[in-house]
Amino acid sequence: MKLSANLGFLWADRPLPDAIHAAKAAGFDAVECHWPYIFDIKEVSMALAETGLPMLGLNTDRGDTSVGENGLSALVGREADARAAIDQAIAYAAALNVPNIHVMAGFAQGDAAHACFIENLIYACENAAQHGMTILIEPLNSYDAPGYFLTTTRQGLEVIKDVGRANLKLMFDCYHVQLMEGDVSHKLKALLPHIGHIQFASVPTRGTPDQGELNYAHVFKVIKGLNYSAPLGAEYKPSGDTDASLGWMKTLAG
Ligand SMILES: O=C(O)[C@@H](O)C(=O)CO
Ligand SMILES: [Mg+2]
Questions:
Q1: In the annotation, is 138 catalytic?
Q2: 126 is catalytic
Q3: Which residue, judged by its Cα, is nearest atom 6 of ligand 1?
Q4: Which side of the chain, N or C, has fewer Cβ within a 10 Å radius?
Q5: CA of 208 to the centre of ligand 1 (A)
Q6: Annotated domain spans of the chain
Q7: How far is the CA of 140 from the centre of ligand 1 (A)?
Q8: Under CATH, what is the fold of the domain 3-61+84-104+118-141+150-251?
Q9: Which residues are within 5 Å of ligand 2 (an ion), measured at CB?
Q10: Spatial distance between the Cα atoms of 201 and 229, rounded to a whole number of angstroms
Q11: What is this structure's pTM?
Q12: Per-residue pLDDT reduced to its tens digit, 43-95
């Protein structure tokens, strides 16, 4: 099983180039990140070249985090900002050969927000397609992100249908899906054609995957059985030093 280190949470105390080197030393096959924009692209690119690790994904900018924004693409009236964030993400990703961009919806509700999200995603998909990239949308759980626009895989499928572009896929984060819906094994199977990337963490604490209510020994077996061989994103919050948290790599994913 191949693994991608999510550097938004793992080695998050280090500059991104150093975190990429740490992921390589720990035996990860790939990396992914959240919001890499403060880091110099050349330095990130050099770290990727030195380690040989691909960067699988990054997120669009959240907007003004000082007022709690968590994405812009479903916010009516913020289309220009949403599209600037999409352009920024595509440019950064293109420079690093990153194949997936997670377009963040933000805090919004209702039909107008849905229509706004659809239009911004069409814009994102059409621009990403010119670089061979996939756009991801990710349902987030309502404990961590109350009021976030996209909360379930069912809603994600409706969005995918309404956007109607082949390069729009679901980020299936087992942690969020378990908290909002459960039935993770069946959902993985049923949604496989729509899944662009899979992430994991323990439930409910978002810690290492060898604890909690979701049995990842089983979930990883299910994923293998689906012949899904892309790296799975380790997107958990280590309780201390990241290197000290990696025992699960041998016991669960070895
Ligand atoms: O699950 C998450 O929180 C992330 O995958 C993300 O992209 C940021 O919300
Ligand atoms: Mg996630």
A1: yes
A2: no
A3: 34
A4: C
A5: 16
A6: 3-61+84-104+118-141+150-251
A7: 7
A8: TIM Barrel (3.20.20)
A9: 173, 199, 235
A10: 18
A11: 0.97
A12: 999 999 999 999 999 999 999 999 999 999 999 999 999 999 999 999 999 99
Q: How many residues does the chain have?
A: 254
Show the tokens assigned to 34: 């959240």
237 Cβ inside 6 Å of ligand 1:
no
**Side chain identity at 181, as an amino acid letter?**
E
pLDDT in tens, 4-58: 999 999 999 999 999 999 999 999 999 999 999 999 999 999 999 999 999 999 9
